[in-house]
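Z., the sequence and structure:
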Amino acid sequence: MNKLIFIIITLHLFNVIVLAQYEDDGERGKYFSKIKYTQTPLPEFEKSKHLLPSPILKTNPEYVDLYWRAWELAFQHYKKPPIGSPFVSNFIDEAFSQSIFQWDTIFMIMFARYADHIFPAIQSLDNFYCRQHENGYICREIIESDGSDYIFLDRKHTINPPLFSWAEVESYRITGDASRFKSVLPVLEKYAEWLELHRKKTNTVHGLYWQTGLGSGMDNTPRDGSGWVDMSSQVVMQYRDIAFICKELGLKDKEELFLAKAKLVSENINKYMWNEEDGLYYDVDDSGNQLKCKSVAAFWPMLAGVSNTNQNERLLDNLKDPHSFWRTVPFPSLAADHKEFKAAGQYWLGAVWAPTNVMIIKGLDKVGEDENYENPNFYKNPEVFNEFAKLASAKYLDAIYSVLKQTGTIWENYSSEVYARGIPSAPDFVGWSGCGPIQLLIENVLGFRPDGANNTLNFHLTRIDEHGINNLHFGDVTTSILCKERKSIKEKTIIEVKSDKSYKLVVKSYNGKRIFEIKNGVQNIKME
């Protein structure tokens, strides 16, 4: 009897501790200064179209058509909080429910930041921050009408990839507006503190972070373990981005603290999760044993800056492998040679998704932009990574456009095997599926990488057709650029530039890097 009582008491205490992680008795939004909604009108697509960046692609007009269709759908999903809602900002909606989703919203911001001067999509995160629990917890899904947490199955599934800080920093890179940093830092610090307490299982050899399928955003992914490679890499990104915010705020001690945290997690990821034979990262169990599931999660360390030169090259080899990830439509969420892969997609058993494609392509960009990248025994030029990112982006857009022509809309996910929507998938999904037609078109197909924070526009000049962009807005600059047609990448070309303010234009091409000081007005640049 005494033993039974002991077991009952132990189970009760365990339940109390578990539930306390998500305690909702305290003050919501305590760490965020914005507490009241101010009525702000929503923009309309037709009235705003002339203010949006306007791509020029002489040989790929279909990409331009797809681009404008994506923006048209996006404007339909700009929303105000419902009457009576505790939300404090207008927001961009994921397109299929009456809740806001953390995972979706963060990736919608990745393309919507190109219209920040029309609709500041980064403020969508305010509605998560104002509903943060006093202990730091933020639920991945929040009901729009009353601001309550939406719980599906169990609370353990309610933590999404911790990428709030990434979205804040990436938005800043376009806008150059650091005014949010002071107000969001307390929120991000408290959220990180909660994750340290409740998403790192005790008594493991690896000290890394766990997730669930639903929590990871990859709902039915066939994965397990107490150390998840995506979650652990996302924690590294979180710490590095918080460190960046601290640096911008002049908080040197905090900056160094968060960088040290990121370094420690990175070292453990490489120690326990990297598989040299396969050239991939894998999840691990409590004892550090690798759980070999070839999924797109393996590529998060590239974006997080965890992987080194050799590892990046091995990851690239896997991405290029036609038997696993380099399919008709790149990149399937589960490798095609995995036993549970489904050609139709079946959600995260093989479908192609915008967030993971953005993750991979931006990871490739990160390596390609590293001017210190050297390995004379393999790739002599980091541009190999940029070129592959461009090729993958175009291949992805070809599929989205083809399915748009078939069905009249943009879908939640796509088949990796044929030009078809994934089964199942939702229509009119802009939503995060706007990332390909807008973000990847601007940044990878056209090659424009704005840096509003440093008043700089980086231009990867790799196309030979007439191409460019009008009304590209970054920082307080609005510029238009047109590159004239040429017969090969080795030939000279003329770049016509129009701008309302001065900025630095950095052109990276076959002949190397050149820097130009752009002035207010119109000028022609001769590229030798």
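The longest strand covers residues 467-474. Confidence is low (pLDDT under 50) at residues 6-17, 373-379.

Let me know what you think.
H.
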